[in-house]
Amino acid sequence: MSTQPLADFLAHSVELESEARERYLELAESMAAHHNDAVSEFFLRMAEESRLHLEEVGGIAKDHDLPELKAWEFQWPDEESPETTSYEAVHYRMSLREAMLLALDNERAAEKFYASFARSSSDENTRKLAAQFAAEEASHAAQLVKKLGALPADSGQHLEEDDDPHMPE
């Protein structure tokens, strides 16, 4: 049996990781359709990272009675869960660097979300687990920063369209 704060935290964590995984899979599929293979492969790796974290959270959550929250009952800082890439931020010709920067923003947003739980929860177990999750997200962000440092700078020309727009006459 779990406390209500811990059950709420775990419900949010399961949803956060699940939504992150789903979005990364969608983006990988979209990039593959546009033959942006490097970015597609990167998004697949990020989906796998989310799956692994979801598995970890699910293992912890299985011993707890989680609330069945409706989509509008989740208390996210923004419209969507913190680790979910906005569709508007993605371009089918984006570079690997741009994809990694988006993922870095996601990792930092998830870290901030978990750290907020760690600071504000009234339950000690929730605070400890949230702090652990925040540290994991910070570690993921640090890994991305390291990988970004090894990438060459973008030229910016990759986002230019090859075709003239089709305008009605």
Automatic annotation (TrEMBL):
<protein>
    <submittedName>
        <fullName>Rubrerythrin</fullName>
    </submittedName>
</protein>
<dbReference type="GO" id="GO:0046872">
    <property type="term" value="F:metal ion binding"/>
</dbReference>
<feature type="region of interest" description="Disordered">
    <location>
        <begin position="149"/>
        <end position="169"/>
    </location>
</feature>
<dbReference type="InterPro" id="IPR009078">
    <property type="entry name" value="Ferritin-like_SF"/>
</dbReference>
<dbReference type="InterPro" id="IPR012347">
    <property type="entry name" value="Ferritin-like"/>
</dbReference>
<dbReference type="Pfam" id="PF02915">
    <property type="entry name" value="Rubrerythrin"/>
</dbReference>
<feature type="domain" description="Rubrerythrin diiron-binding">
    <location>
        <begin position="8"/>
        <end position="144"/>
    </location>
</feature>
<feature type="compositionally biased region" description="Acidic residues">
    <location>
        <begin position="160"/>
        <end position="169"/>
    </location>
</feature>
<dbReference type="GO" id="GO:0016491">
    <property type="term" value="F:oxidoreductase activity"/>
</dbReference>
<dbReference type="InterPro" id="IPR003251">
    <property type="entry name" value="Rr_diiron-bd_dom"/>
</dbReference>
